[in-house]
Amino acid sequence: MDIRQIRYFVAVAEERNIGRAAKRLFISQPPLTRQIQQLEDELQVKLFERTAKGVELTSAGQLFLNESRNILSLIEQAQERTQRAGKGQLGRLDVAIFGSGILNTIPDILKRFKTAYPGVNIVLHQMSKAEQIEALRQKRISVGFNRLLAPLPDIDSTMILQDKLMVAVRDDHPLATKPLINLKELENEPIVVFPKGARPNFVDLVSRVFQEAGVTMNISQTVIDAVTGIALVSGGFGFCLIPSSASVLQLPGVKYIPLGGLPDNATVDLSCIYLKDDHSPLLSAFLAVVHEYKSQLNNQA
Amino acid sequence: MDIRQIRYFVAVAEERNIGRAAKRLFISQPPLTRQIQQLEDELQVKLFERTAKGVELTSAGQLFLNESRNILSLIEQAQERTQRAGKGQLGRLDVAIFGSGILNTIPDILKRFKTAYPGVNIVLHQMSKAEQIEALRQKRISVGFNRLLAPLPDIDSTMILQDKLMVAVRDDHPLATKPLINLKELENEPIVVFPKGARPNFVDLVSRVFQEAGVTMNISQTVIDAVTGIALVSGGFGFCLIPSSASVLQLPGVKYIPLGGLPDNATVDLSCIYLKDDHSPLLSAFLAVVHEYKSQLNNQA
DNA sequence: CCTGCTTGATACCTTTAAGGTATTGCCAAT
DNA sequence: ATTGGCAATACCTTAAAGGTATCAAGCAGG
Predict the structure, then answer these.
(1) Looking at beta carbons, which residues of chain B come within 8 Å of A64?
(2) End-to-end CA distance of chain B, in Å?
């Protein structure tokens, strides 16, 4: 049995006349007659009663007509859905985000992607950097968002933005009134750092900045992420250096003040990472959205 | 797109290796490679990622695999169901019965057919003789049960049984004690006859019998069917001649007594009728059941 | 680092089967 | 009895599926 035969059968059933159906199918009458005969032979069922005016469906033929229509529509659907999946318009995309990374950039990107590709189901996973890399290699996720990535041979990354550093201060502290804080002013002050876990990390950037400025750093506490760090500032544990994008977070008694007098490379990147040899259309579509977001960000600045 | 290609695709997806799949399909590897390429070209979607160890499905391919399995199983089902319909094991059979014909013979036959062909949906219609013939010609029904048929050019019939005549009597009537009633004893007695409507009919048989025996008949009432006639006997309206198979009907105060001293042709047939050129497997199956029933009936007698 | 093995891809030929033209046979309406 | 419309048949042409031989690429073992 053949899809062509099914199509032919439906045409004949609808026209109730082989010659007319042949015209509709842009073939001549004899081959159509033969195809119908073949179909009947194969099924061992008479599908049509031949009359003087044409043909008419037997009861078995009537049943087969319904089934045939179902088959054809299922095939059509399958083609369309597969094509959409091939263009990345349909499917499931597993995305990893890091602890406090759910601030504004990532939700924005996800929102854009969701509106551009409404057929794609986005599944979020909270993962640390190391977990993301393992999950990428095992294909449990397709993209991860992260910061400060060491280059890896099998993993590519796209930088989305670079955050400058800011200082989280309690608003009753004397420095809280200044428009800009110099690193020197934080010498020996208690500093909360984050995150715990795999290096290189935001901690390393902060230490490097202190070191290069020749300022001694007094780490009062190491916590898991920016949110916890800022919470500790609010609790009076000292200062906390954060990437500027984390400053959207509002906590009672906490002010964010830009850090001045730093070298240009004193920034943290936000990047998304993915397997180098993942050529899935879903990933490409997602990266396209990321790039579009990035270029809009640059045009604003 | 082609069912063959879908089958090939599923095999390759399952084996994750074109060569192995080719072996499974009893073809050589190159044509299989080409068919997969063609399928990908047509869908404009890459279905497989070619690796060193074989091939692996892309996400679009994964989706298409699911759809393909659905399509194949639907096709299989369609073939099987159509074949069953072709053998008369599946479908719908519209059957007409006459007013009081729902006694024991017809339910028996229908019950047998139902157990032999459980996939067939029997739809009953109450129809007079004339209605049955019109409905047969319009193909609204496939079989009708009836009595005393005049032969028609386009309609065939099968006689199921021949009923002798019986008399329905009130049990307080003097004749009710006799084991056999002679027609002479009914002379001038009030007789209820049925049915109303198209001739030739059961009435005609009854009148003929009286006439041939030289007995004058006194029709007290003409009613629609046997059930009504017997009800009138119960109400004291007189006697009623009925086909013996109607004697299964029990009404208060009514006895059935055989009619004696009649010629052999004083019988009513129960027949089923159908279009001469209806060769549907459903009808053949039904008629086969009818014949089987008939021959069992004859063996008993 | 090279060699051999496995895998899919290509080139070219053979065979199967689908499509076309011409014609026949059948039934029905005139 | 005749004609018109329909499906079926016979015979040929063409397209496409399958086969054999061979190639190119990637990985494993020496």
Answers:
(1) 78, 81-82, 85
(2) 63
